[in-house]
């Protein structure tokens, strides 16, 4: 592909025409994103009066601080697990041709396009008391009693890894595909073995894809709602479940808004810090 | 095959088993005769599909979701194509703002957006309305549509439009008669992706749903949370078929677009 994605080309239009064409997009963004998020966040600092107490509660109350810490830890765990599972898949995909490449891509894309709720329900069935995983563990003699697997942090981590993994595979695959074969051949001619050539040539060149995928999974995991609320335990909440609880059960909007503020701030900072490695067009384009 | 690549292959196929296993476990359960979910499923029946199609609440939710998804697809395709075209044909500083606002709603966690919209829509009476859902879903589906359209638009030779305009066509006609037909497959694919994203969207639906007017994902969430009946595997079968159909349609559109561009290069 020539030039960048949004590189201007062709005979340029007048400023008025451009504004007119972009107006519906900006209207939509203001109506359904900027204004609602802005007014929610303003609640967190303006209610009951201009104050930071809502934020102080998030960090001072040990219960909420624990939720925050647990959320970060579980998101990191999910990202690391996803990386360990995704990197080899991406490598094999990038090195495959023909039917095998199509098969591998289909295996990664099929779950990508299947419902998150369906996949979460599948894990709930697999991990239930008389589910397959328990039968298997009893079958090979690891345990004699069925274990309580559902509604644990382990269940949430495994199911979230399963749901988010494709977001890691595709950017890494995209980065690997862009490395010319000649580079590894050159490394081989210079006497590097395959491992050294991978370590010193392929891996550094693929790093933007790896980092991009890692951050994308980490950010998504931080605010994930569906899987933790269906498979997790109410005693071991993640932040999204806590936000939902504050709104639906306690009706504590200012505090919920502060939690949203903390989450949004965290995500924004991470995105800005890593904005160089974010090639969204590649990540999203890969989904197609 | 050398030992190293054998090891790599073995590891990758184990990972693929992990990816596919849950899906292959849940699908056959749709045909189970038992009312509880067990593997392997017992007997073969279409009872759960009949229950799904016979239940007015499930049907209402499905149609409601389909209506929202179709409108979301059209909205993102039209609004996204307009903005992308403006960008490729001249917006400079606006481009940076555009990208930030495009990416923003998907970087900000869905829970944050869902809660913000819940508050806003409650105060304005838009909760549970088709309009509210379409606006919300268009925001999160927009990047997927825009990048799909931009991929096509950036590879269209601008000289084609210039030629049309030199021959007397105005900008709109040059776009309508020259550029649009070339990028149309991608515009439709982009719309299809938006349809699936909207149809499958659980988080915003969780907060925006009223007592009536639940979307399909919201109904599914309640079912999974409360008792997890075999209706869920039956819906899983239907959703998987839908996803495969859409992916095949997108692949076909891509094939047609590629063939078009090869044909153009040859002439």
Automatic annotation (TrEMBL), chain A:
InterPro entries to which the protein is assigned, alphabetical: MetI-like, MetI-like_sf
Primary location recorded for the protein, binned into one broad class: membrane
Protein's membrane topology: Multi-pass membrane protein
Keyword Transport applies: yes
Bilayer-spanning residue ranges: 16-37, 74-94, 101-126, 155-176, 205-226, 253-274
Superkingdom of source: Bacteria
CDD domains referenced in this protein's UniProt entry, alphabetically: TM_PBP2
Pfam families tied to this protein: BPD_transp_1 (PF00528)
Single GO cellular component term: plasma membrane
SUPFAM superfamilies to which the protein is assigned, alphabetical: MetI-like
ABC transmembrane type-1 domain mapped to chain residues: 68-274
Subcellular location: Cell membrane
Any one biological process term the GO annotation gives: transmembrane transport
Keyword annotations of the record: Cell membrane, Membrane, Transmembrane, Transmembrane helix, Transport
Record-linked PANTHER family: ABC TRANSPORTER PERMEASE PROTEIN, INNER MEMBRANE ABC TRANSPORTER PERMEASE PROTEIN YDCU-RELATED-RELATED
Family per similarity comment: Belongs to the binding-protein-dependent transport system permease family. CysTW subfamily.
Protein name stated in the entry: ABC transporter permease
Source species taxonomy: Bacteria, Pseudomonadati, Pseudomonadota, Alphaproteobacteria, Hyphomicrobiales
TrEMBL record, chain B:
Membrane topology: Multi-pass membrane protein
The ABC transmembrane type-1 domain, residue ranges: 62-250
Presence of keyword Aminoacyl-tRNA synthetase: no
Main location: membrane
Entry's Gene Ontology cellular component terms: plasma membrane
InterPro entries: MetI-like, MetI-like_sf
Classification via PROSITE patterns: ABC_TM1
Listed transmembrane segments: 12-31, 68-88, 100-121, 133-156, 177-199, 231-257
Database matches in SUPFAM superfamilies: MetI-like
Biological process terms in GO annotation: transmembrane transport
Annotated compartments: Cell inner membrane; Cell membrane
PANTHER family assigned: INNER MEMBRANE ABC TRANSPORTER PERMEASE PROTEIN YDCV
Recorded family membership: Belongs to the binding-protein-dependent transport system permease family.
Protein name per Swiss-Prot or TrEMBL: ABC transporter permease
Species name: Tianweitania populi
Highest classification ranks of the organism: Bacteria, Pseudomonadati, Pseudomonadota, Alphaproteobacteria, Hyphomicrobiales
């Amino acid at each position: 592909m020539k030039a960048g994605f949004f590189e201007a080309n062709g005979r340029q239009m007048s400023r008025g025409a451009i504004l007119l064409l972009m107006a519906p997009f900006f209207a939509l963004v203001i109506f359904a994103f900027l204004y609602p998020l802005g007014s929610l966040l303003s609640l967190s600092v303006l209610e009951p009066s201009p104050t930071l107490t809502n934020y102080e509660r998030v960090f001072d109350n040990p219960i909420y601080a624990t939720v925050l810490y647990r959320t970060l830890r579980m998101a990191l765990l999910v990202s690391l697990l996803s990386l360990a599972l995704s990197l080899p898949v991406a490598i094999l995909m990038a090195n495959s041709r023909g039917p095998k490449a199509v098969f591998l891509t289909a295996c990664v894309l099929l779950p990508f396009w299947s419902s998150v709720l369906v996949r979460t329900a599948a894990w709930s069935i697999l991990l239930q008391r008389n589910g397959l995983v328990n039968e298997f563990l009893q079958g090979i003699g690891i345990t004699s009693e069925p274990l309580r697997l559902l509604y644990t942090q382990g269940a949430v981590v495994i199911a979230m890894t399963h749901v988010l993994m494709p977001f890691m595979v595709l950017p890494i695959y995209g980065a690997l595909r862009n490395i010319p074969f000649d580079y590894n051949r050159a490394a081989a001619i210079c006497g590097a073995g395959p491992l050294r050539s991978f370590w010193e040539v392929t891996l550094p060149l693929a790093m933007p894809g790896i980092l991009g995928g890692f951050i994308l999974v980490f950010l998504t995991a931080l605010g994930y709602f569906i899987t933790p609320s269906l498979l997790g335990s109410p005693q071991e909440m993640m932040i999204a479940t806590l936000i939902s609880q504050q709104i639906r059960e306690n009706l504590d909007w200012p505090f919920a808004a502060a939690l949203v503020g903390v989450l949004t701030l965290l995500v924004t900072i991470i995105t800005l810090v890593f904005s160089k490695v974010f090639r969204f067009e590649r990540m999203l384009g890969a989904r197609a | 095959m050398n030992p190293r690549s054998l090891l790599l292959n073995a590891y990758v196929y184990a990972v693929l088993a992990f990816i596919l296993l849950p899906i292959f476990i849940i699908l056959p359960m749709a045909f189970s005769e038992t009312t509880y979910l067990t593997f392997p499923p017992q007997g073969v029946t279409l009872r759960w599909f009949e229950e799904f199609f016979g239940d007015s609440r499930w049907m209402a939710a499905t149609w409601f979701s389909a209506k929202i998804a179709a409108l979301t697809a059209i909205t993102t395709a039209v609004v996204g194509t307009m903005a992308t075209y403006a960008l490729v044909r001249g917006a400079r500083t606006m481009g940076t703002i555009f990208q930030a606002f495009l990416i923003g709603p998907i970087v900000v966690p869905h829970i944050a957006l869902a809660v913000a919209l819940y508050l806003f829509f409650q105060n304005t009476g838009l909760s549970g309305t088709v309009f509210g859902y379409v606006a919300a879903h268009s925001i999160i589906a927009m990047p997927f549509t825009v990048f799909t359209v931009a991929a096509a638009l950036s590879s269209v030779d601008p000289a084609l439009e210039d030629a049309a305009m030199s021959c007397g066509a105005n900008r709109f006609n040059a776009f309508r008669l020259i550029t649009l037909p070339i990028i149309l497959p991608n515009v439709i694919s982009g719309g299809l992706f938006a349809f699936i994203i909207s149809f499958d969207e659980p988080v915003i639906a969780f907060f925006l749903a009223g007592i009536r007017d639940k979307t399909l994902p919201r109904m599914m969430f309640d079912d999974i949370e409360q008792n997890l009946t075999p209706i869920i595997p039956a819906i899983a079968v239907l959703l998987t078929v839908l996803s495969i159909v859409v992916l095949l349609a997108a692949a076909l559109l891509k094939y047609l677009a590629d063939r078009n561009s090869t044909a153009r290069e040859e002439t």
